Amino acid sequence: MFAINQHLQIMTLTETDFHFPGQTAVYHGKVRDVYTINDSLLVMVASDRISAFDVILPKGIPFKGQVLNQIAAYFLDATADAVPNWKLAVPDPMVTAGVRAEGFRVEMIIRGYLTGSAWRDYAAGVREICGVRLPDGMKENERFSEPIITPTTKADAGHDENISREEIIARGIVSEEDYVVMEQYTRRLFEIGQRMAAEKGLILVDTKYEFGKYDGKVILIDEIHTPDSSRYFYADGYQERFEKGEPQRQLSKEFVRQWLIENGFMGRPGETVPEMTPEVCESISKRYIELYEQVTGCKFVPAPEDNLVQRIETNVIDCLNTLCL
Fold first, then answer.
1. N or C: which terminal CB in the chain sees fewer CB atoms within 10 Å?
2. Maximum Cα–Cα distance for the chain, whole Å?
3. Measured between alpha carbons, how far apart are the two ends of the chain, in Å?
4. How many CB atoms lie within 10 A of CB 10?
5. How many C-beta atoms surround the C-beta of residue 260 within 10 A?
6. What is the pLDDT of residues 106-135, one digit of tens each?
7. Residue 250, pLDDT above cutoff 90
8. Within 10 Å of residue 78's Cβ, how many Cβ atoms?
9. How far lies 108's CA from each of 210, 247, 303, 321, in Å?
10. What are the distances in angstroms from CA 77 to CA 30, 80, 232?
11. What is the distance between the alpha carbons of residues 78 and 221, in angstroms, rounded to a whole number?
């Protein structure tokens, strides 16, 4: 259920197998394990697993689950008045509990800048992404005149696929009425996220949101504005670096992808994940903690890792006793 990082001597949660009262289903995702309670509540455990190129990497990252869960909770609370979401409680630093919605099979990706996979496609000659036309002559990390939405289908396994707004509606994946709401919520959340980032000296570059239907209404589900779902640049020095064509100082999981690419791995058949040494795991952990402190303005306080599994189980059961009353 857990593994020990020998370099840091810190417990990492890489697998879970809980059996909570009223549990009716469990789904093990790339990073989160989602437990369904009485078919009406979800208990989402943020593990210390890390994925890239839709592949789960072989080592856990210390405190990653806590960082993801607490950043997501921070932004879910901060945006709840603007966009309804699924969160009800945070019973443990690595767990969020909330209502169970019927999730849409689409991830809403919104990009404010040309970077990451979009830049790699653009540099290879692509000028249309998800039905959105891109002008010629753009440079890496250049800001779009206005943010663009580039949805992907949500795959149970393997790679998500780019898809256009028109195709989503034509194939009946999401109704036009619901998709319009998802677009509005996506732009609203991104605007709030960019404003909150700017207050902390950061640029929210791009991110993804997931939505579902609950009680007949579209709501935000899953995580929001975490380093797994978002990319941040430091605002200080952005323009100078951009004009010189230099890499941006950023807080995101992109540095993990770049490390993998430099070591010959992009998730393609036959490729092998490079060795994740204790030093590599420690450096990734530090970057996640740095991002937490930058985006929230709060000092990161590591939760005690002794009896990690028992702690989570006890906290969740106590929470369920309250929520299910």
1. C
2. 60
3. 30
4. 19
5. 20
6. 999 999 999 989 999 999 999 999 999 999
7. no
8. 15
9. 6, 26, 32, 34
10. 24, 5, 20
11. 14
61-82 average pLDDT score: 96
Residue located via tokens 């189980």: 313
Which residues lie below 8 Å from residue 29, measured CB to CB, with a gap of 6+?
none
pLDDT of residue 288 exceeding 70: yes
The pLDDT of residue 156 is above 70: no
For 147-161, 218-232, 270-284, which range has the lowest pLDDT when averaged over its residues? Answer: 147-161
Q: What is the pTM of this model?
A: 0.89
Please write down the HEC assignment for all residues of the chain: CCEEECCCCEEECCCCCCCCCCEEEEEECCCEEEEEECCCEEEEEECCCCEECCEECCCCCCCHHHHHHHHHHHHHHHHCCCCCECEEEEEECCEEEEECCEEEEEEEEEEEEECHHHHHHHHCCCCEECCEECCCCCCCCEEEEEEEECCEECCCCCCCEECCHHHHHHCCCCCHHHHHHHHHHHHHHHHHHHHHHHHCCEEEEEEEEEEEEECCEEEEECCCCCCCCEEEEECCCHHHHHHHCCCCCEEECHHHHHHHHHCCCCCCCCCCCCCCCHHHHHHHHHHHHHHHHHHHCCCCCCCCCCCHHHHHHHHHHHHHHHHCC
pLDDT at 173: 95
As given in the structure block, the two tokens for residue 286 are 């530090």
Question: In angstroms, rounded to a whole number, what is the distance separating the alpha carbons of residues 161 and 152?
Answer: 5
From residue 166, alpha-carbon distances to 73, 106, 149, 293 in Å are 32, 13, 12, 39
> What's the whole-number mean pLDDT along residues 228-236?
93
Look over the chain and give the mean of its residue pLDDT values, rounded to a whole number. 92
- Single out the residue of 126, 101, 124, 122 nearest to residue 113, CA to CA: 122
